[in-house]
Write a structure and sequence with these properties.
The chain is α/β, with parallel strands linked by helices and 495 residues long. It has 19 helices and 13 strands. It has a five-stranded parallel beta sheet, with helices on both faces. α15 links the parallel β6 and β7. The longest helix has 20 residues.
Amino acid sequence: MADPKGFMTTPRQDWPRRPVAERVRDWDEVYVPGALLPIINKQADRCMDCGIPFCHDACPLGNLIPEWNDLVSRDDWRQAADRLHATNNFPEFTGRLCPAPCEAGCVLAINQPAVTIKNVEVAIADQAWERGFAPPRPPDRLSGRTVAVIGSGPTGLAAAQQLTRAGHTVAVYEKDDRLGGLMRYGIPEFKMEKHHLDRRLEQMRAEGTKFRTSTAVGRDVGAAELRARYDAVVIATGATAWRELPVSGRELAGIQQAMEYLPLSNRVREGDLESSPMSAAGKHVVIVGGGDTGADCLGTAVREGAASVTQLDIYAQPGAGRDEDAEPWPTYPKIYRLSAAHEEARDLETAPAADADARLFAASTLRFTGDEDGHVRSLHLVEVDARRRPLAGTGRTLPADLVLLALGFSGPDREDGLVDQLGLAMEPRGTITRDAGFATNVPGVFAAGDAARGQSLIVWAIAEGRAVAAAVDRHLTGSSRLPAPIGPYDRPMTV
């Protein structure tokens, strides 16, 4: 603990964002380049080195947060990088994309703003790369065992890296033409520039992990054939089966799923397309769904030059502070948060009729209406109470040339045939059944990440990847020294 009084003398200071008018004209990350490093040592000083650090429990990876806070406050970046990578394969991803449940569990957050744990994490990760503290770590010797990992999202990549470093020969199969899963084609560039992902993939290649892109298991290669070829298989395909909105007019043109829309804008950034065929330019856009994916659509539509953008959230607008009775510390509270995309929408007034920034809260979609050509032109909504019951006399209509459905995901997509070809048992909610050791009902086949857990956070995805790697290593060798931060039935802290 470098400064015993740091939490009393130093106020919280977050990584500043670039001015809205500047950042909406490009696709670069929203934060001011170089502005984090000058403030991060003092922010790390705010950590109280608690006797019982609840930030550990709030983070499924079990990140050693007080330890690396202390090291950063002392400018010991090498040791800080070692302690951070001891529990997290990809801190540059979580430092940019995770909503930081660790900060909700910070003891300082009981009566003060929490330590900027997420900012400290990303500072360490970036410094590790800049100073050469993240070299490839190939195994000393090979085990002679082979593993196929299906899916190259954070779960699949974490599992593959852990198993490769343990000495197994690992091949990652990805159905898209590029690696990264939703980090590649779902997360917009302004949230995480893709060079962070590419750099980590090069590290994994240097360690010995093999990658097979444009290969959908179940369609391009038979699932049973793949199982016969490898000693073990890890299914980490994610939960890509999106939820639908079964209301009148859903069949109209111009109503798209968020994950049909976002990949196209990312492909423009990759140079595959000159412009997106679903571009929001000049259109009245309505986003149905109040989560992070909806916010990603919001920021994307703003940058594409939409005429207006409104986001509908079926929940009531949360308060600015924690409800101690309903969501006591150290649980992750539902409070009003202003993401970078919402800040942009608020300042640019993309939805003048919204309750706050671009959002309409407690709003439920009733139906869509279109023009004579069968294209959507209006969305009809109604306000709802806490039990989602319509409130009489609250109906209204929004102009809508493009509607984006961001309603979440139920489980793995079964169209490729992977699930059925292997004969995997499934849960009623659409996820893959597994036992306490991450094993499915098919011998040698394991399931991890959103495909088995259901839609979750990136930090849980990486924790799942690390844990399933330990399970597979134990299956192949009889024991394992790989860390297993969570079990398949663990869940976030709740009331």
